[in-house]
């Protein structure tokens, strides 16, 4: 919860932990003016787009790590414990959130179990 300094137009120009000259106003961390100053509020113009890019980039990094582990180029244990914990918690959350998603083909691995091609007989030989 910061103390704020405003310019003559009323815009927040700095945040402070302690009251200083010109910072007598105290706002909550989630106040719109504080969020806008930090780049997370509605008046930050496009910060939602940037946050979405960050989220997408995190997903890309997660996929890259999964690929490196799958190809045995790195071991998950090569990563710091904090990184391992975050990866496992994200993976666990994603698995839990997709459990209730629509599954058009059930739990099949490929389309071979979905399409019954026995009626066509042996056309290759």
In short:
The protein is mostly helical. It folds into two domains: 3-44, no CATH class; 47-98, no CATH class.
Please describe the structure with a list of short key phrases separated by commas or semicolons.
2 domains; three-stranded antiparallel beta sheet; mainly alpha; elongated; 3 strands; 39% helix; 125 residues; single chain
Main sheet record: 3 strands, antiparallel
Rg from Cα: 26 Å
Residue share in helices?
25-40%
How many individual domains? 2
- N- to C-terminal distance: 76 Å
Commentary on this structure:
The protein is mainly alpha-helical and 125 residues long. It folds into two domains: 3-44, no CATH class; 47-98, no CATH class. It contains three helices and three strands. The protein has helices at 32-38, 47-70, 81-98; strands at 3-6, 12-16, 25-26. The protein has a three-stranded antiparallel β-sheet, with helices on one face. A hairpin with a 5-residue loop joins strand 1 (3-6) and strand 2. The longest helix is centred in the middle third of the chain and has 24 residues, at 47-70.
Secondary-structure map with pairings?
Blueprint: E1 3-6, E2 12-16, E3 25-26, H1 32-38, H2 47-70, H3 81-98
């Amino acid at each position: 919860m910061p103390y704020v300094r405003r310019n003559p137009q009323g815009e927040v120009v700095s945040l402070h932990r302690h009251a200083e000259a010109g910072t007598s106003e105290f706002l909550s961390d989630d106040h719109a003016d504080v969020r806008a100053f930090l780049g997370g509020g509605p008046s930050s113009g496009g910060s939602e787009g940037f946050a979405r890019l960050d989220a997408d980039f995190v997903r890309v990094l997660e996929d890259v790590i999964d690929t490196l582990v799958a190809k045995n180029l790195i071991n998950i244990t090569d990563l710091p414990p904090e990184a391992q914990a975050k990866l496992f918690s994200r993976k666990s959350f994603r698995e839990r959130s997709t459990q209730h998603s629509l599954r058009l083909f059930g739990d099949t691995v490929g389309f071979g179990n979905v399409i019954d091609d026995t009626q066509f007989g042996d056309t290759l030989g």
